[in-house]
Each structure stands twice: as C-alpha cells, then as structure tokens.
Design goal:
This protein is an all-beta fold. It has a single domain, classed as Jelly Rolls (Sandwich), CATH 2.60.120. It has one helix and ten strands. The strands form two sheets. A six-stranded antiparallel sheet has the order 1-2-3-10-5-8, with no helix packed on it. A four-stranded antiparallel sheet has the order 4-9-6-7, with no helix packed on it. Strand 6 and strand 7 form a beta hairpin. The radius of gyration is 16 Å and the shape is globular. The N and C termini lie far apart (34 Å).
Length: 168
C-alpha cells in the first residue's frame, strides 16, 4: 500500500519529551506519529551522572549517534567513548547501555530496526530485554547518588524496579 503522503516531516516542536519508564531519562520518540514498524528513532538527553538501562534486543539492531557532547556506551564487556557526531552500531542480543559519567549533558539519537518487538511496557517479557538487573551502572557511576542532583525528569523510580513486573 502506498501512503497518500510519501513522507512525514517532524519538526522539533512536534516532539514530546518524557522520562523513560525505568531510569527516568528524558527522551523523545521521533517516529511515534508515523506508525512505522520498520524502524524506530528516539532522542535521549542524558544528564551528567546518568545512565539508561542495561538491556538487549532480540531482533532489533540499533545505531547510537552522539549529537551533542561526548558519549559513553557499554556493549557487552566493553566501554566505548564516542565523540560528537560519532556512532556505534549494536547488533541484536548484545547487551548495551548509554551512560554519562561526564559533567555536561549528552544528546544521543538512537535508530533501530526492525521496530516490531514487544517491549516490557507493551506486554513483552522483561527477561528477554533485561537478562540482568537493568539498573546496574557502569563502574564510573557506581557510588554516585541516584538520581543525579538537579536533573529534571530523572526521577528516583529506578530504585523501585521489580523484575517480575511488566511495567518497565
């Protein structure tokens, strides 16, 4: 089926920023209004001293682009530093976590495909995405207070994680 409109223009004012379900990191879904099941694209604004979940995907591969700042990402047992405008491709099944152990905010664009997995918040099996505790932090953030001080949208709900809950 060919869409009557062959494109969807998304401008910054269209984006709806919200805290993520588990780690409460501010993010905006670029493609939610398109209904695409072929790929996903989301901005993640990581405040200093914060981290996203330690997770994996069963089918989706993702490419993590740093738009502002210097990014850090764990992939399986490796920690990588990604310069502004750099990127890291992560295949399905690899554990991954973007984090910010620096002093300034980092803006990531994460693009993944296919975007047809059922995430835990959509009724998917949490163990499929979180084979280990998703709240675990990289070594450089361990011992720091959570949530990081003065980070709007980064709330303390991560401490309430229940691995048996579907509300992730």
């Amino acid at each position: 089926m060919i869409d009557a409109n062959p494109y969807t223009l998304i401008v910054p004012d269209d984006l709806v920023w919200r805290p993520s379900n588990l780690m409460r990191i501010p993010n905006a879904d670029y493609l939610e209004r398109t209904g695409s099941s072929q790929m996903g694209a989301r901005l993640w604004r990581l405040p200093a001293g914060s981290a996203n979940t330690w997770h994996r995907h069963s089918r989706s591969e993702e490419c993590y682009f740093v738009l502002e700042g210097v990014g850090r990402i764990r992939v399986n047992d490796e920690v990588l530093t990604v310069p502004q405008y750099g990127a890291v491709h992560v295949p399905p099944a690899s554990l991954r976590q973007v984090f910010n152990d620096g002093d300034t905010e980092v803006l990531w664009l994460v693009v993944g495909a296919p975007d047809d997995e059922r995430l835990p918040a959509q009724g998917g099996d949490p163990a499929e995405f979180y084979p280990e505790d998703p709240r675990q932090l990289p070594e450089t953030l361990k011992g720091r207070p959570w949530p990081p001080a003065g980070t709007p949208g980064c709330l303390s709900r991560a401490a309430d994680y229940n691995p048996n809950s579907n509300e992730l």
